[in-house]
Amino acid sequence: MPPGRSLDVGDIDKDGHDDLLGGQPIAADAGGRSGGQITIKRGHPWGLNHPGDTVTVHQDTDGIPGTAEAGDALGASVVLRDVDGDGVLDVLAGLPGEDIGVAGTTRADAGSALVLRLTTGLTVASAQALDQGADGIPGAAEPGDRFGAEVAAGDYTGASAVGLAVGAPGENSGDGTVHVGADGAAVFIGPATAGTPAGGRLGAVLAP
Ligand SMILES: [Ca+2]
Ligand SMILES: [Ca+2]
Ligand SMILES: [Ca+2]
Ligand SMILES: [Ca+2]
Hints:
By secondary structure, this protein is mainly beta. 4% of the residues lie in helices and 35% in strands.
């Protein structure tokens, strides 16, 4: 596995050694794949490169929503966090180049994000795709939104529940937005709320 374009670390299998999550959104990168992919490498006292301890997931993997298509850019952003509170780390990964179908039309590069609930065996127990206009996420999937260009997770409400944040820097002609989901509701944070300028591409970069 070559270095990813996005990285996070955490002890997924709970053996006391951090495991590595890498996103590889670019097919032309060494070891890359059309549509992008994410790779998990199990950490050991002797390092990361133990044969058989690498798990790669993409949209053509069984159980993952959607289909791998050129330019999806799965893995443009990744974060490891226990999103469902079962004590095992999970993956939030962005696909800002995913095209979204809305009422029979294709919205190119509207973008999507995947939530992958993991097991300590480094397998995906369940997967969910998020995009604008679906699953209670405010806004509409429009061409070029690039929802999923950046992702983050944290306790945004002080309720000790993990919330998810997804950036869509192409929203509204590049004004950008950040969608924050917490406590079962998602909020659209745009320039009027964040105080960012027109064309400021809010959501292009999120701190973990
Ligand atoms: Ca580990
Ligand atoms: Ca796709
Ligand atoms: Ca979990
Ligand atoms: Ca939109």
